[in-house]
Amino acid sequence: MALHAELHRHLGGSVVPRVLWRYFERHSTELISRFPNYGEFEDFYTRPRNTLDEYLELHTLVESVQTVETLPYFIYRLVRGAYIFENLAYLELRYTPYLRTPEHLSQSKRIDKMAEIVDVVGKASHIQECPIVTSQILCMHSRLPFEVNKAIIDLAVENRQYVCGIDVAGGDSYYADRLQEWISLYDYARSQGVNTTGHLYETTAGCYPELLPYLKRIGHGIQIPLLYPELLPEIARRGQCLEVCPTTYIKTGTLQDIRQLKLVFDRCFEAGVDIAICTDNAGLHNVRLPFEYENLLTYDIIGFAQLQACQEAAFRHAFAWPYTHRPASLLNGLLQPETPKVMAMKD
Predict the structure, then answer these.
(1) What is the pLDDT of residues 101-160, one digit of tens each?
(2) Mind listing the domains of the chain with CATH numbers?
(3) 222 and 242 in contact (C-beta within 8 Å)?
(4) By the 8 A CB rule, do 192 and 184 touch?
(5) pTM recorded for the entire structure
(6) Strand intervals (E) in 148-284
(7) Which residue windows are coiled coil (predicted)?
């Protein structure tokens, strides 16, 4: 029974090591020629990094092979694994479409090619034997020019059947020099009715309160309860949700101990701020969503009641979940024949 919702998963970081290794063996052996065996490749691919920038460099390894031709291969295995091993009912995949277009083309031609990428990802994500509700979040990028980032928003507007929102990625320390530009882009997205999230307050270098009013959800956001808890009441008032990805903060060196997240959860619950537990880069971490749940429980960061609240929040804040309740309500209906068995659609 599919039960869970995943709101923060990157397409580039979602390819599990074994699938990527097999692809390289068949098509790009030069990319793994320095690894004598799979074990050493897996260790390199999944080991912790010292900084977020170092960690993000791994995305380029996968982006280079995620093309129009190969995306169906990767997405089929991604969705199949999410359905079978993670019990996902809902999955938002986020990525920068521009970075999946041929590098030898001009900027304008690469922008034109982005629509094809979105179409391929959208069609490949719908797999009959793996009935997951899927949608895409298109990521602007901190190292791409304004013209490309605006085109990404326009692409989201034009492809609502596949796209449920926009994001900004690429390292939150790089926003400062172009802060007014990001504000204008998010303001434009909101004016077009596009849902918004953004990598913000992930690290101590990525704290920009000016951007918060433009977001429906906050990508990571852990530095808010850790360093700026005075912002929590306003975030609760706006109904914003934090997308917390526990393993990421250890892999990037942002936190030294996962138990530091207890303060994040405690302060958010106390302030009435919702948290959705996510994986971020399940492939890079070699973990799946149920493991994130189990790890938080094992370290006494949250209890079962808080876990259930986070699971419910994930469906409540999902941009494209079409029902009014999470799938558990359907299961309850099956166990109680006198109750309706069909979930009501959202208005």
Answers:
(1) 999 999 999 999 999 999 999 999 999 999 999 999 999 999 999 999 999 999 999 999
(2) 4-335 (3.20.20.140)
(3) yes
(4) no
(5) 0.91
(6) 163-169, 199-200, 217-220, 241-244, 274-277
(7) none
